[in-house]
Amino acid sequence: MMAPVSSIMLSIDGSIAALFVVFGLGVMVSRQMLASLRFFMWQASALTASALALAYALQAVNLLWVALITFTTKVIAVPLVLRWAAGEEVYGRREVDQAMGIPASVLVAAMLALVGWFAVAPVLPTLHGVPFAAINLPTGLIMVLWGAFTVAVRRESVAQLMGLLIMENGAFFGSIAIVHNLTVIAEIAAAVDVPIVALVIGLLIRSIRRITGSTRVGTLDKLHER
Amino acid sequence: MNVEWLPALILLVPLSGALLALLNRRAAPYFSVFAAFITLILGISAAWHVEAHGPIHASDGLFALDALGALYLLPVCFVYFTSSLYAIGYLWARQQEQAKDEAEPRYRQYFPLMNVFALVILAVPLVANLALMWIAIELTTVFSAFLVAYEDRAEALEAAWKYVALTSMGAMIALLGVLMLYYGTHAAGQAPTWDGLLCAAPHMSAPLLLLAFVLWLIGFGAKTGLVPMHTWLPDAHSQAPASVCAVLSGVETSAALYMLLRIYPALAANPGIHDPAAWYMTAGLITVGSAAFMLLQVHDFKRMFAYSTIEHMGIILTACGIGAAVHEQGTVYQLFAHGFTKSFCFFAAGLAGIIFGTQEIAKVRGLISRSPAAGWALVLGTLAIAGAPPFALFLSEFEILYTGYSSGQYLPTGLLTAFIVIAFIALAYQATRIAFGAPDNIPEQHTAPTIKIPRSSLAAMAIAFIPMFVFGFYLPAPLLHLVHEAALMLEVPA
Questions:
Q1: B237 — contact with chain A (CB < 8 Å)?
Q2: Chain B residues 25-84 with CB within 8 Å of chain A
């Protein structure tokens, strides 16, 4: 059982969660690759802010590590890695091609938000004494669903990578409210994992561009059952 | 040697293999085989120790190896070794065969990447912490992406991208489930390990545990190839070199399945979760059924074996749902035997691809007359993977069906029987067409030049044949005991 926290801290975390959602929506619907990357960086900053707020409110030192790792890997390392591996594609002000229009995407996002909320609703009453769970856990699951949707509808490899990265942001945003005791080794491994994933996928994007002349993975459709 | 060092050593050897392969490209294949051989010996030693003395806990709780982990570790080590040996000649021969193509294979990157890929698969049964297991599974995708895209052609890159996008998406979904279980075990005062999860499960909130499981089923299900998240699997296997397919299909897909199997007793131990077996049976039967029907219409023999992998993942999941009595010679034995049997099939398919220069079933006939070794290997491998006697998978599939009927679960067992029979007919039909069909009416380019089958590939196939055949009728006492101990771990704790 954790100590009760002040309503101010709950309000702060709630505001951060609102920003987290807005930035996630930005990644989903932005029409340019660079804008998508910037929304992702802002969202990772919101995740950092939430980890700091929770670290202060719950006196959880480990969450300071999570904040540091998140900021270093996602706000600093991932953009650098992407600039190196797929710079022209990301920073070339390219339009994002997607299978679904933006109004329809927003509608689906709203429905996924409801699905996420109803999936978590039965869990919340069982999390006695976990003050931020009601804010972070549904927000996190909704972001995981939005990220998966982004991967599904975007036809650009970089935009799909952004979808994967916001899924990871969502998983961590949801879990920092309930888990602040990841072992150091797991935290270090998680810190290494994200840039490796970004690097390898960035290199794959570069190869796709070299061979096909574009990063539009939606046009790669030679493989299927006849 | 102190047994506490074994898990760390098992991981250090492939890492050394990767570094040496990076330093000396010319000797890279031989470093890889040597590293894989040492890993195999260490893996057998670790499994032997677990069988004789119980689980290994090492490095202050960083590593843990129990009977189920050891039983999964054995095929991983074995397939890593045979695949490394097979690759020596196979990659060279494939390069000769495809010299006319513009594609330039990533030969230099192959051996370092393959060693790191093996390292992260080996980490799954060895690390104790659930979060580290998730990281290992996530990294299997990352390190194998360029192995799938080995040939650097548009099709190979398409396959690699689909593989990375779908399985990474699954991994991110599973991550939230992992972290929820982390909370659940911590709240119950337990460590985030399999043992801790089992102790914590009866006290955990049922909705939390169920939500975590559903996230795992979707997330790890994508990696396992459960329908409808299976679409990456046939594409990746049609493009990757056979030596990579052997590892992907034989042991990598089962890494995520291993996670799904291990959470089963925790679900069953929670009084608030009603009938978790139904989830396993439903997901399993949908997967087996879909794969069986897709096998009927397949046109590419490497895709055929990929669909067979989907079928087997479904069989294992269904077997887990059918019940405790099945686990010993059913669930865990199927998981164990599928690894080396499927790798053998891909070895044979790889050679057939080199001989004919195509993977299209319609263009490949009379393989036995062109190469008796490759032809018979393809026939025997197909029979073995389809579950024909006297091969190892016959034993497990027979046991699953027998126990299903004898425990009165007629509907799921009946459906499973029907799907297995359909898959058997489809596999046998395609293999006989490839092996025995008259080599007439085949375009010139697909009947021409004979490429000598590499000896290292034949040796790897011969080694892979031994367990596939022998374990169908004889299991050494220590292995039988290990299978028994592993099966007990899937049972609901009293």
A1: no
A2: 62
- Domain, as residue range, for A48: 7-215
Q: Smallest Cα–Cα separation from A168: which of B416, B426, B209, B171?
A: B171
Give residue-wise pLDDT tens across range B167-212.
999 999 999 999 899 889 988 999 999 999 999 999 999 999 999 9
Q: For chain A, how many structural domains are there in total?
A: 1
pLDDT tens profile A103-112:
898 999 999 9
> Considering only CB atoms, which chain A residues are within 8 Å of B160?
204
pLDDT confidence of residue A1? 47
Chains A, B: CB contacts within 8 A come to 139
Closest residue of chain A to B131, computed from CA coordinates: A186
Task: Report the alpha-carbon angle B230-B232-B238, nearest 5.
Answer: 115
| Domain presence at residue A225 | no
Complex ipTM, two decimals?
0.90
Candidates A73, A118, A123, A154, partner chain B, best to mutate (most B CBs within 10 A)? A123
Residues of B in contact with A163 (CB under 8 A): 169
Q: Do B169 and A197 touch (CB under 8 A)?
A: no
Backbone angles phi, psi at B449, to 5 degrees: -25, 140
Q: Do the beta carbons of residue B487 and residue B328 sit within 8 Å?
A: yes
Average pLDDT, chain A: 85
Q: Are strands B63-65 and B56-58 parallel, antiparallel or unpaired?
A: antiparallel
Bridge partners (DSSP) listed for residue B103? none
Using alpha carbons, list the distances in angstroms from residue B28 to B21, B22, B76, B115. Answer: 4, 7, 20, 10
- Per-range mean pLDDT, top range of A62-66, B105-109, B284-288, B318-322: B284-288
Query: Which residues from chain A sit within 8 angstroms of residue B163, using beta carbons?
Result: none
Cβ <8 Å between A175 and B159? no
Residue A226 falls inside a structural domain:
no
Contact residues on chain B for A193, CB-CB shorter than 8 A? 135, 138-139
pLDDT, tens only, B391-430: 999 999 999 999 899 889 999 999 999 999 999 999 999 9
Find the CB nearest B158 among A141, A197, A223.
A223
Which parts of B19-85 are beta strand (E)? 56-58, 63-65
Are residues B172 and A148, on separate chains, in Cβ contact within 8 Å? yes
Residue A154 half-sphere exposure toward CB, CA atoms < 13 A: 27
Place of tokens 């034995």: B333
- Under the banding of pLDDT at 50, 70 and 90, the label for residue B467 is very high
A1 within domain boundaries: no
Interchain proximity B155–A147, CB inside 8 Å: no
Q: Check A127 against B205: CB less than 8 A apart.
A: yes
- The whole-angstrom separation of Cα B332 and Cα B326 is 9
Q: Average pLDDT of A43-56?
A: 93
pLDDT in tens, B3-46: 889 999 999 999 999 999 999 988 999 999 999 999 999 999 99
CA-to-CA separations, B40 to A223, B43, B185, B333, in angstroms, rounded: 36, 5, 33, 19
d(C-alpha B481, C-alpha B307), whole Å: 32
Answer yes or no: is pLDDT of B439 > 70.
Answer: no
A103 belongs to a structural domain: yes
Is the pLDDT assigned to residue B241 strictly greater than 50?
A: yes
> Given this model, what pLDDT does residue A208 score?
84
Q: Which of A65, A136, A219, A223 to mutate to test the interface with B (most CBs of B within 10 A)?
A: A223
CA nearest B236 in A: which residue? Answer: A223
Select from B119, B176, B216 the residue whose CB has the most chain A CBs within 10 Å, as the one to mutate to test that interface: B176
